[in-house]
Automatic annotation (TrEMBL), chains A, B:
GO MF assignments: N-carbamoyl-D-amino acid hydrolase activity
Keyword Isomerase: no
All residue ranges annotated as the CN hydrolase domain in the record: 7-289
Name listed for the protein in its UniProt record: Putative N-carbamoyl-D-amino acid amidohydrolase
Keywords, comma-separated and alphabetical: Hydrolase
Top EC category: hydrolase
Entry-linked Gene3D superfamilies: Carbon-nitrogen hydrolase
Length: 342, 342
């Protein structure tokens, strides 16, 4: 029997600073209805889908790396439980429609930890998986030279859990958030656990302040990394964006559904709320997992130790130590220093 | 001072089974001259550039996984020293022109080991780096159902050395061969050593027997993996092909030079001997290495242990053991088994 999941990728347009969760949940429910009408059993929302992307502002009084002083507005963007008063309707509607969903939000734990999370909710409205963002981009303290801030490293801790997969919707499903998608390790760690579908939500400003030469390449890079991750692991990738101009900042839209071949099979064409869907054949994964990317047969884990050795300085030191063990025949001949031609 | 390398990517058309090394070296020297005329200081040739791609034939008498019986023709495709009588002219001409090169060939060591290798030769004609292929694709024994064989796993051992980089041509240069380019670990292990340019030669048949649905995607996959590897590591990638119909087998051409942005900046348009060149600004690497992909700041090596844990079965076991240490709050809620909607 062919296994497939009918998936809706539910892109969101801007969420204003003064938009309430109730207003946003209305939009999410409207997208859930669109998904149900098209036969979706899973609708995927983006990262931080309940509020505006608040890391663009310095919202506390601290001048160092730590949050300090009045955190009233900052805290207002986090959820302390899920579901909660504002989101219960979404869970109820999901159960009524028998459509599961994946939702991103900011989590403030009872003991004061702050995480950027993604939850997977099944067709009965139950949370069956939770992921905390591993790769936190941006910066720790206010940088006044930027047109807008990207203070994720101030407002979120790095996940202590890593990447796991979940048996749900008849398949093996993983989750990642935004910057995670740029790192091949993200897909690989889940690919090694047999991931057949990876759900990725993102908020990506089109203006990358540290190197504006990357700005015109944002859409290219976005698809490049997700297509490569899908192909190299034989997995579906559902990439779901926020788009449009939110509080003066323009975000990448370009929501996509990517097959294990790396091909884009569905893509949003607006910068607003928009659902695109695809029937995702999970057995298609094996065309790659059991041939070219048969990990057991072809991978060389012993050759990859640099990847887990720590920072690059340690990696280089480890490799140099290793080199001293080589026989003269195998040793790398040191390159002579050359004049560079102009 | 801006650092750059003027690089020529020297694609080769088919090499016939009865073509001599002397004839091939004439072609390599012609490409070297083209490179010199365009100001190149480094010309990169493809994988196994001295002979036809012999793994397409079962050339010994063994029925199992091992080479047996008469190996006269098989052995004729390997080099037992480098330079040798046939290739000395190439080294001499490189020195005379002050143009370095990178060359792929089959190596038979004095103690009987067989490797698929790539060497880096500097502008004085000296070998400054040697790489043995890490990822060996294809199969170990004759498979008569195939239109042609891909017996690399019979004819080549896996490299025991791994991926290293070399200080040469004013930069930090790594090498990889053919199937290596499909694995993100290849680029990452060299990226962690500071690679600014990765040279990759390949022979890729357009007909992939284990899954012909991949055939129309060969050119897409080829560029996808090299562009992602370049971008995700902030490195130049020089991908050099054999093209055309060689002994009845059609090979992917599509030689490219790729910038650290992932952009293709030069591409061959024929399926024959053809040199394309680009001025590669090595300092461009830092636009990525020091921003989005600042490895020291943003990578999470502790989260990647699955990548070096061994085969997937071990990875899953290790992760499950880890999960038992979680608090109930953090634990993943097991997904209930669901009926799959058709």
């Amino acid at each position: 029997m062919t296994r497939f999941i009918d998936v809706g990728a539910a892109q969101l347009g801007p969420i204003a600073r003064d938009e309430t969760r109730e207003q946003v949940v209305d939009r999410l429910i409207a997208l859930l209805h669109q998904g149900a009408a098209r036969g979706c059993e899973l609708v995927v929302f983006p990262e931080l889908a309940l509020t505006t992307f608040f890391p663009r502002w310095h919202l506390d009084d601290g001048e160092g790396d730590e949050i300090e002083g009045d955190t009233t507005e900052l805290d207002s963007y986090y959820e302390i439980e899920m579901p909660n008063t504002a989101t219960q309707r979404l869970f109820d509607e999901a159960k009524r429609l028998a459509v599961g969903f994946c939702l991103g939000y900011a989590e403030l734990t009872p003991d004061g930890h702050r995480y950027n999370v993604y939850i997977l909710v099944d067709r009965e409205g139950e949370v069956v998986g939770k992921y905390r963002k591993v790769h936190i981009p941006g910066h720790e303290r206010h940088e006044p030279w930027r047109k807008f801030q990207h203070l994720e490293r101030r407002y979120f801790e790095e996940s202590p859990d890593g990447f796991r997969v979940h048996e749900a919707f008849g398949g093996t499903i993983g989750m990642a958030i935004c910057n995670d998608r740029r790192w091949p390790e993200t897909y690989r760690v889940m690919g090694l656990q047999g991931a057949e579908m990876i759900l990725i939500g993102y908020n990506t400003p089109l203006d990358y302040a540290p190197d504006p030469s990357q700005n015109p390449l944002q859409a290219f890079h976005n698809h490049l990394v997700m297509q490569a991750g899908a192909y190299q692991n034989g997995t579906w990738v559902i990439g779901v964006a926020k788009g449009g101009v939110e509080e003066g900042v323009e975000s990448l839209a370009q929501t996509v559904i990517i097959a294990p071949s790396g091909q884009i099979v569905a893509q949003a064409t607006t910068i607003d709320d928009e659902l695109v869907m695809a029937r995702c054949d999970l057995d298609m994964c094996d065309r790659y997992k059991k041939t070219l990317f048969d990990f057991d047969r072809y991978r060389r884990p012993d050759m990859y130790t640099a990847i887990t050795d720590g920072p690059p300085s340690l990696v280089v030191a480890a490799i140099e130590t290793e080199s001293t063990k080589l026989t003269p025949e195998d040793a790398v001949i040191p390159a002579s220093t050359k004049e560079q031609a102009q």
